[in-house]
Amino acid sequence: MPLLHDPKITPEERALAQAHSDFLRLKRLLYDNISKLPSLPVVVDNLKKALESYKHIGVISLSIQTVALVELQYGWQAYDNLIIEIAQQLNELIGNVIQGEVVLAMEYARSDEFLIFCLSQPDEKSVTLEYMEHVSERLFKALNDHLGQYPVDSIYRKVGLNGGFAIITNNRVVRAERLIYHGLNEAKRMAALYESRRHTKQIETLRSIIAERQIATTFQPIIYMADLRIMAYEALSVSPKEAGFPNTEVLFSIAQEAGLGLKLDRLCRENAITNASKMADHYKLFVNVEPSAIDDPEFRQAQFVEFMQSHGIEPSKVVLEITERTAIKDYDIFLKSLKYFQDLGFEIAVDDAGAGYASLNSIAYLRPKFLKFDHALVQNIHKTPIKQQLLETLIDFADKIGAHVIAEGIESIEEFEMLREMNVEFGQGYYIARPDFTFPDVREELVNHMNGSQPKKP
What pTM was estimated for this model as a whole? Predict the structure, then answer.
C-alpha cells in the first residue's frame, strides 16, 4: 500500500490508503487480537435479529478472577496465552456443552471478559432460564476441568473463573441495544452475588477443613542439577479435592481474609513434620512458613521442637521456606524472630526471590541459605535471553551473600539443560518429579536423558 504522504501517489490511491488505514484502526478497536473474538458492538446486530426471531436470548458473562496479581507474577505473555486457551476451549465447547445457535464475543477489545450469547436451544426453540442454568453449570465445569489438567504451579491453576447468566427478552418499547446491555449487567450482578456466596461457602469449608485436620501433605524432590542426586524434599499442602480450592494460593488467600491464616499455617506445618517422619535421614525438609507465623507463640515455643524430635526430625534437617503470600511489615522485628530459629539450627530459604516483598535489598538483610526462583523466571528461559541475563545477575547476587540457588517450576528438558548450562546448583519441578504422598524419585525419562549425555564439568 503506498504511503499516505508520498507525493507521487494519486488522490484516488491516497484515499484508498486512508480508507485501509482507517479500517485497520477500527478493526483493532472492535476485534480482540488476542482471543481473535469480536467485541460486543460487532455482534449487536446479530443479537437484535435473534431477539426478533426467538423473543428470548440468553447471555453468560465469564470473567477471569486473578489471584495475587498473577499477570504481574507470570508476565503479560503468559496471561495472554491464558486468554487464548479459554477462547479456544469455548469454541470447542460449542456443539458439545453449548448447543443451539451461539455467538461468542469479548465485552471489548483486550478485555478478559468473555460473553456467550445463546440465541436458541438445539431444537430452535427460545432459550429458557432453566436451559441457561444447565448450560452455565456444564460450561464452567468443563472449563475448570480443562484448566485443572495443567501443572499446579502454572498460571492456568492460579486463576479462577467467575460468571453469571441472564435472559434477555424482546420488548418493542425499549431499544434492542439497551435490552442487550441491561441483560449483560444483570448477568454481571448475578456473577457478583454468586461470587459473594461462593466466598462465604469457601470460608465455611475452610473452617471445617482446619477443625477436622483435612489437609494432606505431598512431597516434591529438590535435586542437584549436576548429577540428579536428591538434596531435599519440599512439603506441599493439599486440601481435599471435593473442597473446591484450585490451589494452595487460593486456600491461604481466603484463610488470610478470614483471619484463619495462622491456624492453617500451624496445621500444614504439623502435618508436614508428621508425614516427613518416614523420610530418609540424609535429606533436608523444606517447610513453607508465612512471615506472620514467625511470631506465632505456638511455633516459637519449645514444644514445637520437641514435637519435631518426637518424629525423628532435628531442626538442622529443616529449611523454613518464607513464602511471599503476605508482606513483611517490620524487618527489624522479623529478623530478631528469624534469628531465634536460626540459633536453634533451622536454615532459611526465600521463595520467589526478586519478586513481591522479596526485593534483593530485603534478601540481603535476611541472609538465607537458599534462594528459590520460580516458574515466572524459569519458563522458556532457553529461548528468552533477557531471563538468562536476569538469572545470571541473581546467581551472582546469591554467591555474594553465600546462598544456594534453587530453580523451581522446571517443566521441560530445554529449561533443565539451560539451567544446568548456567550452573544453577539445585532444581525442582514437574519435569524432575511430580509431588506425591510418598517420596518420589527423579523421573525415569530424565535419568535416561542424563545417562545418555556427557557429564557436566564442575
Answer: 0.73
